[in-house]
Protein 1
Amino acid sequence: MEYNEIFKELKNKIYRPVYFLYGDEPYFIDRITNYIHQNALPEAERSFNQTVLYGKDTTIEEVINAARRYPMISNHQVVIIKEAQNINNLKPLLHYLEKPQKSTILVFNYKYKNIDKRTKVYKALKDKAVLFESQKIQEHKIPLWISKYLTAKEVKISDEAAALLAEYLGNDLNKITHELEKLFIALPQGKSNIDPADIERNIGISKDYNVFELNKALAEKNVVKANIIINHFAKNPNENPLPKIIGSLYYFFSKVLGYHFVNKRDSPREIAAAIKVNPKMTWQYKNASQKYDANKLARIIGYLREYDLKSKGLNNTGTPDGELLRELIFKILH
């Protein structure tokens, strides 16, 4: 089942006997688990009919024994297995899945790991349980995810602000939502939109001096603006570590290079899908591709690899990161 389908059922108080939630993205797994934990039973019944076990401290046999118990003066009991990825052998679960206890809601919180899809256990879970794979969201889709998350809370965010957050926070959804919750609290009463100034004021990411703005300046070959930004970076190396800057530049210029090889007759959305970028930002890669031909971009990728190694001490006799950054940006622009 998909995440939205599961939540729709849960909010309608439709609970299934077994949930197996697994994958690399903990955010969705924890949200489903926590919702069941907090809502499947009335608070007064939880002390009697809700059990939380931990995979590193239990066996699958103990899990099954707990699941086969009958609830006390209630229609249901809840058994939640946290860190279920630490259970060594899931094979005995096959017998339970053949005839699960209907009065039990059994939840496996199986994070940071995938289950082998060739096994009988996986096939049985797919057939008999709610099986949900929680996958990492690709970084270029994070700005859209942020926008949708906020829309659900009746708050809007500008495309630039969403891109800025994604640039600095990556695709760690727990970290992103934590920062967004801080923004909700800090927004003035009656304000229902978030812009880069709000992010700078409340999260500490400068709206003017950040890698997102550096990418824009380089895309436009704006030498003055690019140098103002990197001079700020050089003065604040702890806030703007060189490896992180190089990683962002590598991502940006590799997408610009990819733009050279797409079908220009395709729609912006099709082009964005081909090079794996946010559709709302396709224009930036298009503009940059007009400033840098494919040969120059190949050389830039080479410079980025070279300076990434230098930032880590290879072929570097002690040049400060600020100077390395200035050298790199000079080579990119000229």
Protein 2
Amino acid sequence: MVIFFLLLIIILCVILGLVILVQNPKGGGLSASIGGIGNQFMGVKQTTDVLERGTWIFAALIGLLCILSPMFIPTGAAGKNNLLDKVNLRPTTTAPVTSPSIPPPAPAPVNPK
């Protein structure tokens, strides 16, 4: 199930990238490249709105899938084969912590007058 979410997120990211690349940052976008039939086909304003709405929808879907996908990661006995659980193989010891001994301060020199 996690692999399904991962593949779905990757596919949506590619589609989002394509939708963003189709847009023109100066306002022309897809409608300017149609070749003179922009107003007759869909209209300049409508094409820009559709691409912007598509950008927001794909970005929201990617965010939603990223938030929901951890709910499908198995836990419990099936999750015990996790790589992070195998990292610390040394047994833990509870040795008392000792502070280093600090030598007493040297006596101040006496100044005879």
Protein 3
Amino acid sequence: MAPLADQLTLRQSVKVSYIIDSLRRHGTQRFLIHLTRGLAGLGYRQQIIELSGAADRDIEEALVTAGGNVVHIGKSSFLWAGAGWFRLVRAIRKAKPDVVITFLPVADTLGRPAARLAGVPNLLSSIRARDLAKPRWQRLWDRRTVHWASKIIFNSRYVVEYAKREEGIRDEQVVVIPNGVADLRAQALQYRETTRRELKLDSETIVLGSVGRLHSQKNQTLLLRACAKLPVARPAWKLLVVGDGPDKEKLERLASDLGLETHILWLGARAEVEKLLAAMDVFVHTADFEGMPNALMEAMAMGLPVIASEIDGARELIRDGLDGYLVPAGNVAMFSERIQTVMNDPDLARRFGENAHASVLAAFGLPQMVQAYHSLLQSLAGSAKA
């Protein structure tokens, strides 16, 4: 296949400013690296405005390397106090972008009025999931400002009806662009043995894995309770938990209460997630709500069998019984049963992994995602400059 830059044409020179809550090692930030890299290859000029002062160096460096200019507004307290918001307005005015795109809840709440005051010709917002935890005051404010956006980008079609009902989105604003993923099979072959040796995992141990913030949304509590029902020794197994967050101490206490200390490796937030995915045999995703989960996509692109909550974007990614299993959200017993089924049947696990790898790349490859954003941005820039 020809390089993406050879397939697409930049009809309008476009400058894009992305406003995002933080640059931590989370799914939306990893998505933004891929998008920035893809659009930079097409000649886009891009700026990333980070609001909270919370940034991991590897994420920021990856965005800069991908072709973005990163601007930090300041700590959250400074932002909400008012001075930070006016600094955001000034940053947008200085950049003079053709398009502003807000990502994540704080960016939506503060970025929409800032972009409007700054006189940006095109404002977009990206709703990444059903945010069931959003405070009522913030939801009411967001409903007042959402009509300022010409389009709302969703990464999962399953989130659209919820957002229309709860966020005040109109039909004509809706654009669905699923996340994209690169082929990671080569990395699986390259890093599997070395990563397992570094983690002191022998070749006979079945490695279960989870990647995500340690947060109630991801429901790692369910993951631990499901693992507590697995056989203690036969087959031998370990659980890799990749991620950090506010629930860390609570989850560690629960693991101790369940007698799982020797079965779990708490790896924290890590820069090279692909190397850790390569060490896994089965990927488990227990979130209660989600948009298009990047970690799940990457596991599939790695060729792993997947077991996930039957929610939102996971239903678009996984063909139940073909690529892995979909389990009703919150069902501890069924999660444990499905995990054991895959652990005890190597042929099934291999078939699920091969199917997952092929299906996710066919439907959700990075070129498709970049092309969709490119087409949308060109249409907006063209109408604004006509």
Protein 4
Amino acid sequence: MDKGLYVAMSGAKQTMLAQAKVANNLANVGTTGFKADLAQFRSMPAFGEGFPSRVFAMTERPGFDFNHGALITTGNDLDFAIQGEGWFAVQAPDGTEGYSRAGSLKINAAGVLEDSHGNLMLGEGGPVVVPPFETLEIGADGSISIIPLGAPANAVELIDRIRLVNPALDEVTKSADGLFRRKDGEAAIVDGQVRISSGMLEASNVNAVGELTDMIELSRQFELQVKLMENKQENGRTLEQLLQMSS
């Protein structure tokens, strides 16, 4: 294959992958606690028979933007935002443990505390089960206290504590379901220093203007690469005609 055509073809393909990353970030501008994906291009040698004299473009995901999103005051008693570093530990639908900063909580029909994505909030012994109550309060350390249904106002019971963790950022990666998990598959230990604020949510950290600018730039790059492939194809047809005339 022509060297220029190969480079243009691989560049167009990888540009489409980069556009998918930008599209995913833009789709999650309004997703609570979302962390933007990062992407970068680099050239890679094409190995095979003979010398590696050809290169191709590759889009890779070097990591994620771990900067915190803005805090939004909601006034909802079941909305929580992590103060500084840390994560909520949740149980994904597949039963695995993941980490999230999405703190919009609710109690489902089975009396289990879950986040807005349907992931179960983990406590000291598994998913947090909340018995019928008159009032419920979650402290800054994740402790969950209730006054049981029908009990007097002074009958406060500590039923569980939301599992708050803070693994090193270089130890976690994002999964396809949007949750972060430890790379070694192990569960992170509870960190007693992590604190949460009630009545607040952390917004997505996606910079919509920056992502839109990137999308425009990537679209132009894709058009240039397609144009280069068309030029190479036209050059090939012209060369074929000249060879036919000379034969």
